[in-house]
Write a structure and sequence with these properties.
The protein is mostly helical. It has seven helices and four strands, in the order αβααβαβααβα. The protein has a two-stranded antiparallel sheet. Helix 1 (7-15) crosses helix 4, helix 2 crosses helix 3 (42-52) and helix 5 (101-110) packs across helix 6. The protein is elongated and about 65 Å long. The two termini are 35 Å apart. The mean pLDDT is 88.
């Protein structure tokens, strides 16, 4: 059984086959193929290790690996936030920071949905936290997650 202090450490130890507290390019490659379900060329794994290797030994220590994982997760969250922000802008009135019943009806119509203004008011009302009749981005996020 692997003893771990956090999830990244568990992942690191699981793929550290040599037990030397360092991931070789082939061990990193195995990890990438496990999470990605596709073949990763050895050269790509070597380049990735090289780009993260701070001590120049050609291997990834646990701190290097965990830092990379944290940056990857943070990057994914930022990308998701931007995608959500872009989706919100599609539904919002031009020049506005909110989705109105009219803008919702317009976007649904563009998507091939025939919806009445009253139905759009009801839909907005289900997520309108401050009950002002429109959806702001903070109202929109939980609806989409």
């Amino acid at each position: 059984m692997i003893n771990c202090n956090n999830a990244y450490e568990c992942i690191f130890r699981r793929f550290n086959e040599e037990g030397d507290q360092k991931l070789s390019p082939s061990e990193l490659r195995c990890f990438l193929e496990t999470i990605g379900d596709e073949q990763v060329p050895m050269e790509e794994a070597r380049e990735l290790v090289e780009s993260m290797d701070t001590d120049g030994d050609g291997l990834l220590g646990s701190e290097e690996f965990m830092g990379w994982m944290e940056r990857e997760i943070r990057g994914d969250e930022e990308r998701k936030f931007e995608e959500l922000r872009e989706a919100f802008r599609m539904y919002a009135m031009e020049g506005s920071e909110c989705i109105t019943p009219k803008s919702l009806k317009r976007m649904l119509s563009r998507l091939g949905e025939s919806t009445s203004l009253e139905d759009c008011c009801v839909m907005i009302g289900e997520f309108d936290v401050n009950v002002d009749g429109v959806l702001r981005f903070d109202d929109f996020k939980p609806m989409m997650l």
